[in-house]
Amino acid sequence: MRLRRRAAGLAFGAVILFVIGTNAQAGWLFVLAALLLGTVLAGIVVPLVALRGLAVELSAPAETHQGADTRVQLTVTNRGRAVRWGLVASDEHVGGATAYIGSARPRESVEVRTVRGAPRRGEARTAWVELRSAAPFGVAERRRRLPADATTLVLPRVVPLGALPFVDLASSREAAVETDGRRGQGPDYLGVREFRPGDPIRQVHWRLTARHGELVVRDLEEHRVPRLAIWVDTHGDAALDEACSAAASIVASATTTGVGIRLAAATPNGPTVVSRASALTLHRWLARLGTSDVPSSTALAWLAGDALRGVGTLVAVADAAAFDDGAVDALGSLSRAVSRIVLVTVSGDAPRLLQDAGVEVVPWLGQEGFGTVRAGAPQPMGASS
Q1: Model pLDDT for residues 246-255, shown as the tens digit of each residue
Q2: 146, 129 in Cβ contact below 8 A?
Q3: Which helix (H) or strand (E) is 24 found in, with range?
Q4: Per-residue pLDDT, 218
Q5: Are 307 and 338 in contact (CB under 8 A)?
Q6: Which of the residue ranges 123-127, 165-169, 298-302, 370-374 would you say has the lowest mean pLDDT?
Q7: How far apart are CA 261 and CA 240, in angstroms?
Q8: Is 30 exposed, middle or buried (0-12, 13-18, 19+ CB in 10 A)?
Q9: Are the beta carbons of 140 and 7 closer than 8 angstroms?
Q10: Residue 236 contacts by C-beta under 8 Å, 6 or more apart in sequence?
Q11: How far apart are CA 367 and CA 160, in angstroms?
Q12: Are 374 and 254 in contact (CB under 8 A)?
């Protein structure tokens, strides 16, 4: 129970009227003073039962995007036998909202829909809704938290980027530098050859087989799917939401052109990598990504090996202000595993040493997408993993 300023004002007015009535011997002033005092007492007692018999239900979508308009429905049900007046509901789900319910008759359910935007990505869980009422006179306010269960996964904000200027068109540096076609299961036709054990039966050239009297198969070129690895720096919470938004925007743009995506990050339990997944699955992974105490240099060192196998371009998304010399050296050393390294800075200025090490620096401007690319020095062609 919380008393409002109105209670003090009414009580003070009652005292003033009583004093004036006593000096002036005016009985009607005593009546007014009694009315004011009765209003104060009734306004304190009535709200004590104003929220009894009420139940709430919160309905929200299972998924939404950070900053997007999200419709949330709140249902207040009066299970009591008396009318409940002056109801106001507040909750903190996906950004929070306060809604005026008004009155609820016995056995009546009142539905209120609000539109709000989630300020941060991640899993939003709400366990309660706060109801309050100051009826009938606004003298005192009764507040009560009622249980509610709502969960919404807030996906990172996605900014339309169009074509990515830093995505290699080959699956690795080895594929990027060679000129001859490689045999595989791709759509491009290289020629014919004799059948070998293990060749798929669908590649058999039946006309030539009938002509030569032995199995002849079509020789197809290897599929060359561009592969892009995105590493998100989780060391610190200040810029992680923007880093995940930049990564999600790159994923959305790259997957529409058929680029294979691999996401990597450090967690309190060690390194984690996800690949061969849809854009929605990758966005969900970014939504659940949390902070870690793993230094950036250590997390980058974990990328060496299978995490970058077959990758043509590595995009590191980080807060440049927190990028120390150890992280610079670790990122530059990965040039032996990939042909192109790009650092997307979500805040701060990147160290000059990064460009000297052959790392391209691209500032992230939030809703405006990428800034001007600052190219690094030419990288030596190292061994491919």
Answers
A1: 999 999 998 8
A2: yes
A3: helix 5-24
A4: 78
A5: no
A6: 165-169
A7: 20
A8: middle
A9: yes
A10: 291, 319, 322
A11: 9
A12: no
* Angle (CA) 240 245 247, round 5°: 95
Q: What is the pTM of this model?
A: 0.77
DSSP assignments along 328-370, one per residue:
HHHHHHGGGT-SEEEEEESSSPPPHHHHHTT-EEEEB-GGG-B
| Tally of CB atoms within 10 A around 251 | 26
Residue 303 has pLDDT above 50, yes or no: yes
- Output the furthest CA–CA distance in the chain (Å, rounded): 130
Per-residue pLDDT tens digits for 86-97: 999 999 999 999
Count of CB atoms situated within 10 Å of the CB of 356: 12
SS3 state at 255: helix
Nearby residues of 378 by Cβ (< 8 Å), 6 or more positions away: 358
Residue 108 tokens read as 């009546």
Range with the poorest average pLDDT among 32-36, 47-51, 128-132, 179-183: 179-183
* Residue from 328, 159, 303, 311 nearest 232 by CA: 303
**Residue 147 burial by Cβ neighbours in a 10 Å radius (0-12, 13-18, 19+):** exposed
Q: How confident is the model at residue 348 (pLDDT cuts 50, 70, 90)?
A: confident
Length reported for the chain = 385
| Neighbour-count burial of 23, counting CB atoms closer than 10 A to its CB (0-12 exposed, 13-18 middle, 19+ buried) | exposed
Radius of gyration for the chain, computed over Cα atoms and rounded to the nearest angstrom:
33
